[in-house]
Design a protein that fits this description.
The chain has about 325 residues and is an alpha/beta fold. The chain is built from nine helices and 16 strands. Helix 1 crosses helix 8 and helix 8 packs antiparallel against helix 9. It is globular, with a radius of gyration of 18 Å.
């Protein structure tokens, strides 16, 4: 069972349009509404793969009730913490060439009591969890050290932690030694304070995060693929796709694939790549099922081409 924690979940509405024309009245060719938030998406991908998952998250107002109902309809157990604020709603606009424009709302401000209730809910429901995936940005009211406290409590209870966040929240949590952290290229560059131009730069940055406390790093490098750096060294893989329909939640699907495949080693990396590649070919933030996965295009190697230049270097 994989337990997910999403401190700032959302309702995500996606519109597919022929082209984004500012100031014009646009007609969508398709639209959908999905549960949103990085941890929520991990739970959705885990459930789509046929595994048990439990989503811990704050819920407020009609949007929160709608979010819980949507998750329940997907077979996901929900441990909701009632908050006074309204759960946020986000909008994504997808164009045929794969360009995605997102408008993310701020979300509610959590009180000190609501913050503690969220931590308590994780502790109460974590028994039997193979992994606890803590994902996304923190809402207003939660200090950057909130994830660090969660990691410390989870480790004390004997749980393994996967952390997908960025900025001060990531930096603060490293001291508690999360079992795996999952930055994208931009977040990895931000964490070490320097540009990433080659795969070698990414490996060095990942090793720096490990020196700071992370036991392993799973880095998403966009079209270039993904990089896993752990005690066994560095492993790199890719899974090219013909066309990208929507990249919303693709990184979350990758993390779900990695964790459901054991959360360690090249086989888990291959699963992460297959899930991510399948997700970008689906509309909105729809999560892939086993039937959507194409493992034939996945390649992994521990002979990382360190001098290879990234397709989209991070300045």
């Amino acid at each position: 069972m994989i337990l997910t924690v999403t401190p700032n979940p959302s309702l995500d509405r996606t519109y597919e349009i022929p082209a984004l024309d500012r100031g014009a009245v646009l007609r969508a060719t398709a639209d959908r509404i999905d549960p949103g938030g990085k941890g929520v998406n991990v739970s959705r991908a885990v459930a789509a793969a046929g595994h048990r998952t439990l989503a811990v998250l704050p819920l407020g107002g009609p949007a929160g009730a709608a979010l819980a109902a949507l998750l329940g309809a997907e077979g996901i157990e929900v441990a909701g913490v009632e908050v006074a604020g309204q759960t946020r709603s986000n909008i994504s606009v997808a164009e045929p060439d794969g360009t995605l424009t997102k408008i993310n709302a701020t979300g509610p401000e959590l009180t000190a009591d609501e913050s503690e209730a969220l931590l308590g809910a994780v502790g109460e429901r974590s028994a039997g969890a193979d992994w606890i995936a803590c994902c996304g940005s923190l809402p207003r009211g939660l200090a950057p050290e909130w994830y660090a406290e969660l990691v410390a409590r989870a480790h004390h209870a004997g749980a393994r932690i996967a952390l997908d966040t960025s900025g001060p929240s990531l930096t603060a949590a490293l001291r508690e030694r999360p079992d795996i952290v999952k930055p994208n290229a931009e977040e990895l560059s931000q964490a070490v304070g320097r540009p990433l131009v080659t795969l070698g730069d990414a490996v060095e940055a990942a090793e720096e995060l490990r020196a700071g406390g992370a036991r392993a790093v799973l880095a998403s490098l966009g079209a270039d693929g993904q990089l896993l750096v752990d005690d066994g060294g560095a492993c790199f893989g890719s899974a090219p796709v013909a066309a990208v329909r929507s990249n919303v939640g693709a990184g979350d699907a990758s993390l779900a694939g990695f964790l459901t495949a054991g959360g360690t080693g090249p086989m888990a990396l291959a699963a992460a790549l297959a899930h991510g590649a399948a997700a970008v070919q689906l509309p909105g933030s729809l999560m892939p099922t086993p039937a959507d996965l194409d493992t034939s295009a996945v390649t992994t190697t521990d002979a990382v081409p360190l001098h290879r230049v990234l397709t989209e270097p991070v300045p």
